[in-house]
Write a structure and sequence with these properties.
Elements: E1 2-8, E2 16-21, E3 29-30, E4 58-61, E5 66-69, E6 72-73, H1 74-80, H2 83-92, H3 98-109, H4 118-122, H5 131-141, H6 155-181, H7 194-203, H8 214-226, H9 234-243, H10 249-260, H11 268-279, H12 285-293, H13 314-329, H14 335-348, H15 351-355, H16 363-372, H17 380-402
Antiparallel strand pairs: 1-2, 2-3, 4-5, 5-6
Helix pairs in contact: 2-17, 5-6, 5-10, 6-7, 6-17, 7-8, 8-13, 8-17, 9-10, 9-17, 10-17, 11-16, 13-16
The chain binds acetyl coenzyme *A.
Acetyl coenzyme *A (ACO) binds near residues 264, 304 and 356.
Keywords: Acyltransferase, Transferase, Tricarboxylic acid cycle
Family: Belongs to the citrate synthase family.
InterPro entries: Citrate_synth-like_lrg_a-sub, Citrate_synth-like_sm_a-sub, Citrate_synthase, Citrate_synthase_AS, Citrate_synthase_bac-typ, Citrate_synthase_sf, Citrate_synthase_typ-I
Length: about 425
């Protein structure tokens, strides 16, 4: 909707009028779509001031620390919902009735197995591969096994592919772990919850029954909820960009996984735990804080800062609570938690962090919880990818439902002008 306009005046040229669009919440956006035809592009590396699409899925107010999925606040979802209900909400826009939820869960659980031949695909990877490399490869390869849902122009195909990805991702993620430690793969169990089934596939073995601890199951479910979607972040934008060419959903989600892997994005939870281990004791904190503030040192406090949140990340608040619950349940006193809490305290009172509005983000506490559960740090980003798959799919589906337009940004060219070529190679 537009009732305001901005006028762009270039010296010596006729003014250009641009519509200002309003969403339901958040900033207005200037509609620059007609600018290209006027011989002008906008310049915004890193998209710090650019809305790349219209969306009804997730809303973030970074200054106020608000995160809403389909209008529902994240803390309410984390406290009163469960991951599969959140998935339903993200994908369908409304909270499900009991009957709709039961149907949804039945469909998810009926797709949890993967084609048996995929188990052989795993054996082509080195055992010491990073599980994210394996996850990325295997997810992309799913397109080779599920040909019957690849026509992105058919709504039913998009629907089936969405269920397949949501259902199979825990199976593939747990297989990445089992493969890395040389244990046999564990098949999914449809009598367990989404989180419980994942824990079982991670930790049970053919020679010993694994009983899912309800506190850990709930904690895993919360981690999944808190990572389920986050608007147009790097990996989601990657999925949308990949999907905008009409690429198949498995390839698009593999692209999202690749983007998520970076330490400035989903790789931060692994990097954060490594950093806490490196700090190791409270006495070492001032030295690391000093390094984080030093412009000549590339070191950053991992788990701090966010492109959008300039306030406490609302997910970090829930994560902090869950962290204490898990450590209590396991009767663990974790030195790293002590280091994390003191680091948080020191940073939040330091003018450098206050002025730049650098607060702990969701990854600050998740690594401690996952480590306490016995999950190795190389699996942290894999779990993030598993949780985020629903967000990626929701955005991919929304993009198709709204009608796709290939993403094709322009550039400010600063290279050579046209020049003569003469080869310097020997004849
Ligand atoms: N430690 C120390 N200084 C920091 C940090 C940090 N973690 N984050 C930002 N800063 C400083 C920058 O040096 C810069 O200072 P300056 O203005 O004096 O130059 C200022 O804060 C702004 O930082 P930018 O890098 O411009 O902010 P941007 O929005 O581009 O980056 C990012 C956001 C990538 C998340 C950044 O804060 C960071 O690298 N954090 C650590 C990694 C991390 O935790 N990532 C997880 C993000 S959440 C997620 O993906 C789930």
């Amino acid at each position: 909707m537009s009732d305001k306009k901005v006028t762009l005046t270039l010296q010596g040229e006729a003014p250009v009028e641009l519509d200002v669009l309003h969403g339901t919440l958040g900033q207005d956006v200037v509609d620059v779509r007609t600018l290209g035809a006027q011989g002008l592009f906008t310049y915004d590396p890193g998209f710090t001031s650019t809305a790349s699409c219209e969306s009804q899925i997730t809303y973030i107010d970074g200054d106020e620390g608000i995160l809403l999925h389909r209008g529902f606040p994240i803390d309410q979802l984390a406290t009163h919902s469960n991951y599969l209900e959140v998935c339903y909400i993200l994908l369908n826009g409304e909270a499900p009735t009991q009957a709709q939820f039961d149907d949804f869960c039945t469909t998810v659980t009926r797709h949890t197995m993967i084609h048996e031949q995929i188990t052989r695909l795993f054996h082509g990877f080195r055992r010491d591969s990073h599980p994210m490399a394996v996850l990325c490869g295997v997810t992309g390869a799913l397109a080779a096994f599920y040909h019957d849902s690849l026509d992105v122009n058919i709504e039913r195909h998009r629907e089936i592919a969405a269920f397949r990805l949501l259902s199979k991702m825990p199976t593939v993620a747990a297989m990445c772990y089992k493969y890395s430690i040389g244990q046999p793969f564990v098949y999914p169990r449809n009598d367990l919850s989404y989180a419980g089934n994942f824990l079982n596939m991670m930790f049970s073995t053919p020679c010993e029954e694994y009983v899912v601890n309800p506190v850990l199951e709930r904690a895993m479910d919360r981690i999944l909820i808190l990572h389920a979607d986050h608007e147009q972040n790097a990996s989601t934008s990657t999925v949308r960009t990949a999907g905008s060419s009409g690429a198949n959903p498995f390839a698009c989600i593999a692209a999202g996984i690749a983007s998520l892997w970076g330490p400035a994005h989903g790789g931060a939870n692994e990097a954060c735990l490594r950093m806490l281990e490196e700090i190791s004791t409270v006495e070492h904190i001032p030295e690391f804080v000093r390094r984080a503030k030093d412009k000549n040192d590339s070191f950053r406090l991992m788990g701090f800062g966010h492109r959008v949140y300039k306030n406490y990340d609302p997910r970090a608040t829930v994560m902090r609570e869950t962290c204490h619950e898990v450590l209590n349940e396991l009767g663990m006193k974790d030195d790293l938690l002590e280091v994390a809490m003191e680091l948080e305290h020191i940073a939040l009172n330091d003018p450098y962090f206050i002025e730049r509005k650098l607060y702990p983000n969701v990854d600050f506490y998740s690594g401690i919880i996952l480590k306490a559960m016995g999950i190795p740090s190389s699996m942290f980003t894999v779990i993030f990818a598993m949780a985020r798959t629903v967000g990626w799919i929701a955005h991919w589906k929304e993009m198709h439902d709204d009608g796709i337009k290939i993403a094709r940004p322009r550039q400010l060219y600063t290279g050579y002008e046209a020049r003569e070529f003469s080869s310097q190679l020997k004849e």
